[in-house]
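Minutes, project check-in

Agenda point 3 was the complex the collaborators sent over. CS summarized: two entities, 1350 residues total, and the question is how they sit relative to each other. Sequences were read into the notes so everyone works from the same version.
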Amino acid sequence: MKLEIFTCLITLLFFSTSASTNTTFHHPLDPLTPSEFKLVRTIVQKKYQASPPTLTFQYIGLDEPDKAIVLSWQYSDPKTKATTLPPRRAFVVARFKKQSLEITVDLSKRSIVSTNVYIGHGFPMLTFDEQDFVAELPFKYKPFIESVNKRGLNISEVVCSTASVGWYGEIKSKRTLKLQCFHTQGSTNLFAMPLEGITVVADLDERKLVAYFDRKIVPVPKAEGTEYVASKQKPPFGPTFIGAAFVQPNGPGFKINGHSISWANWEFHLGYDIRAGPVISLASIYDIQQQRYRRVLYRGYISEFFVPYMDPTSSWYFKTFLDSGEFGFGQSMVSLEPFADCPSNAAFLDAYFAGEDGVPVKIANAFCVFEKYAGDIMWRHTESEIHDEEIREVRPDVSLVVRTVSTVGNYDYIVDWEFKPSGSIKMGVGLTGILGIKATAYTHVDQIKEDAFGTLLTDNTIGVHHDHYLTYHLDLDIDGEANSFVKTNLETVRVTDHSSPRKSYWTVVRETAKTEADARIKLGLKPSELAVVNPNKETKPGNKMGYRLFPFTVANPLLAPDDYPQLRGSFTNYNVFVTPYNKSEKWAGGLYADQSRGEDTLAVWSLRNRSIENKDIVLWHTVGIHHVPCQEDYPIMPTLSGGFELKPTNFFESNPVLKAKAPKPVHLPKCNSKP
Amino acid sequence: MKLEIFTCLITLLFFSTSASTNTTFHHPLDPLTPSEFKLVRTIVQKKYQASPPTLTFQYIGLDEPDKAIVLSWQYSDPKTKATTLPPRRAFVVARFKKQSLEITVDLSKRSIVSTNVYIGHGFPMLTFDEQDFVAELPFKYKPFIESVNKRGLNISEVVCSTASVGWYGEIKSKRTLKLQCFHTQGSTNLFAMPLEGITVVADLDERKLVAYFDRKIVPVPKAEGTEYVASKQKPPFGPTFIGAAFVQPNGPGFKINGHSISWANWEFHLGYDIRAGPVISLASIYDIQQQRYRRVLYRGYISEFFVPYMDPTSSWYFKTFLDSGEFGFGQSMVSLEPFADCPSNAAFLDAYFAGEDGVPVKIANAFCVFEKYAGDIMWRHTESEIHDEEIREVRPDVSLVVRTVSTVGNYDYIVDWEFKPSGSIKMGVGLTGILGIKATAYTHVDQIKEDAFGTLLTDNTIGVHHDHYLTYHLDLDIDGEANSFVKTNLETVRVTDHSSPRKSYWTVVRETAKTEADARIKLGLKPSELAVVNPNKETKPGNKMGYRLFPFTVANPLLAPDDYPQLRGSFTNYNVFVTPYNKSEKWAGGLYADQSRGEDTLAVWSLRNRSIENKDIVLWHTVGIHHVPCQEDYPIMPTLSGGFELKPTNFFESNPVLKAKAPKPVHLPKCNSKP
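CS then shared the predicted structure for the full assembly.
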């Protein structure tokens, strides 16, 4: 019991440390602080003399200094760093009089640097406030109340949620949302009980309902069996687990200094953006042979997240979400629960974003950072070939995890950045939460004569087929900016000259991508290793130093390429893209993703077919999952995991953890061995 | 400090428990005990009046009772189980007068039941003793001593290791081995310093050298930089890690009763075989809704392990190993190191096999069993759509791991069977140890003008290209034996009738495999979910109950299909096979894998194209890795991980861990919080 408190104290200690330091900035890439958000608000509201709903902040984020400036600062004299911080700027997308404004604010000079009215297609990210506002409108709307009454449902148990509308070839678009309502019946699991057949359309700029459809009455699934909250469950419970305590009496092995984190041989900056969520920058690894930190990743984040559902009917066809660009993957981050979302040895950090009124909103415990002791083996060998001795040498593995969870409506996305001492960075994605559920009259599959577009999970309940595509922006800078993308193709060689008893073997044929077209890749079609290398840096034996993409959850889109959702999600057409670094190419689905028309996507940028050889390049990789729901996913989904890894490949001269010592035995606080 | 001892005590307690129980058998699938091995030895040696080298035991294992008998016993009245054990039999492959004998011994009756002289191609598994014997022969062989002297090397620093010879179209085969020798120069890492160009051929039946080739002098790589033993390393060390203690004061949550293990909602039998290594049988999961254990996996083990190297030259072409069938994946299991190979909360079990003289050999700590607390999330959801409350419900994940490590010469294979409360079984494979290294004159890639068949890792050192294929035998019995194999194909549907604003979506088309040909699958060619279902059992809404194969490390062979090694390894031609259960079809590469000719492989059995619908079927899945070595793999390789998962899919009516409670807080022994 005491030890628990002790562990708690460690956690709290870190929490308070981080909480106090992440409200002021120390690094050019630190996210905007609460006081900076307030300053932006003051400056912009003063200029336009307006506040919500006339003027709304759809996005406020750091307008990063140019990469050259950041790099120059990062590697400058540590003594002068505090005083040579580059000027701070904020980038704002505001909605003002039905127009999207792009405003750059200089925070040092307390002035607006530039203003631009965006005139292209698509709309900015949705704010929570406007979604909350329109989700209340049906409750004052007579036809909706009548629809609820007609179904014999209790309106006090109805909740409405918002869905972006997508784009389906309309010539003119208004900034609208569709509302999907649910009958909770006292259960927490509203998403399991949709009021199918009713679609409410709201105009966000007008903040009013603009269309209403009550197509047909479909039975609402019963609440029984939907609940997932422990206190509302009835026995039998199970399975049961024995508790365990994980103790680091001297605290964790990592250091958090503001947003800069160092651990073992890694150091990196952990940023945050209302749209991207966690942003990893300037990740470098200490090379014990070179006795210096070496650059690996200038920037890594999830650029876009495409979730198309596969039901073409009137109440579902539009559900083809861009979870980052429409809903804000950072805005959707939720507070993590100590001892459950993260293990007992985790430290926590908060995050702040600005609401539509510009007022900072705090997400407490938005990040956790912990050392992962999963029981894995870093490396080992048992040697018994040498006479009279059996040698066994084993190193247990440890890694550092930065975790966030973004809950976008029904789904919870667990995003892990895992740094391994061996030099790998593993990006993990866990999908949990509630399925996208459609109500139906069916209670048995034998009744289904046409396509039901999903799996019948229980009475009146269809888990609709869908995909998840997460597109990562990975600005690798392998020992510097000038990098190339190299495909190491494995090719069969036929031995026909009888020089060997063998008839064949495989060998590698390396191919350096010259332009973007060479680097648009569908994985799985041929055996190939993909790496970003520094063509100007070689190891002692002469291999190009690089990092390899090690994919393990890939899926190729099955929508027709000319279908509207796929045009908007065309950045998923390939599993891999490589582009030359361009500060403006941040969002794979475009800056204005809501109702976008696919004109500003990674796939379109790539068509410029720019040179990417020996250039500052960005690797884009899409993790993809086709999801055919099964009954186990209901009423709440066991985590489905995926991801990929970036692994050093001839980056080091030899195994970088060869000389890692196993952790020393832990000397716990004085304990008696009797409980 | 005290707590360490305390944790140790727990471990030791378990260790001694298991050590005392796994020497007698309680279950029809328990591996042969030391006394049973002795009995087999006595009976067979008495019959043939011979001992090594005239009569050698190449394999002794349990001759399992028929599946029907085991199942009938397993589900019989627990009270009478101890007295109704089916008769115990051993299956023996012996080498006697240059013939392979198959002998079945009845241990209850202490008699030989049947004897058969095998007359087909291929030879039985190699024994450690015969390999050790022939590995010493070069040191008494003058031409070899001269070769060593000619190179100016010290013979006292030379070690020879064994390699199987494969089959390359020879009409007549003798039971031979090739020896590869190394100049250790005081380093532990012999495999990094090969005496390239020398091949020694030994006859195993004659126990003498039969051929010798000293083709050319190649520089032996220097010992510098090869060492991996901590005590022999020089500073700088690093990276460094902070220790952590993991404590379960009331012991672990699993129970080991002989070879039967139960934990949370799982129970299974952990067997052992000198050839297969760990064998998981009778895995069942408790269904909280049905209030009973339900059958999932009758039997799972690694059936064969194919490792072809990609160098066709005279001293390397034959290196196309079948690590199970030739070297014994169980025989190659090594003792696990507490706190390093397995975490501090692990329990350990021993294993026993019979040496070529029939005498039992103990592998202490051959298995470890531990609860894995990796910091993962079992499921979660944050609900903020319901007015005035934010609900957060999170369950941390725990799983049970059974781990073994097989060290086959240079490579160490970590084999994990991970049981998840959500119903998944995850098979993990970790590759570590030492690369297959070839000596070369090269010191820089610029010198390489022809194919070097690998990566230049450091001076004079090539890491040779190779593959790893692990073929799992997975006898799934989903709620009973009669099962079917179902492909759920994801297919694009074009919407052409303007019934939807969408132009397309995907849906599922299910296809039940009728015969073996329908179930030979190369993964990645089309999006499909593969499942073994019980066509006679459906859920309430009418879905067939099943388990899905969730592959994540697949590779397709690149050798020509008619090349000799690929004929022998043809069981890797597809990533998936399904066969009707047949007791004799155990070894995917054939019972006599050494110098096999590919006549008795899974690929050949499958050509019979038997019916597999609503039958007792076996799923075979091959985990594959193409390995292009990189410098980080040298001198010892950071673990490269792969594997796959079997996941319940409509097996349960709903999420089986919905009502799992988070582990209770741990009450540690009385502690003061001051160190």
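Noted in discussion: Helices of chain A lie at 2-21, 34-48, 67-74, 128-136, 142-150, 564-568, 602-606.
Follow-up: revisit at the next meeting once the mutant set is ready.
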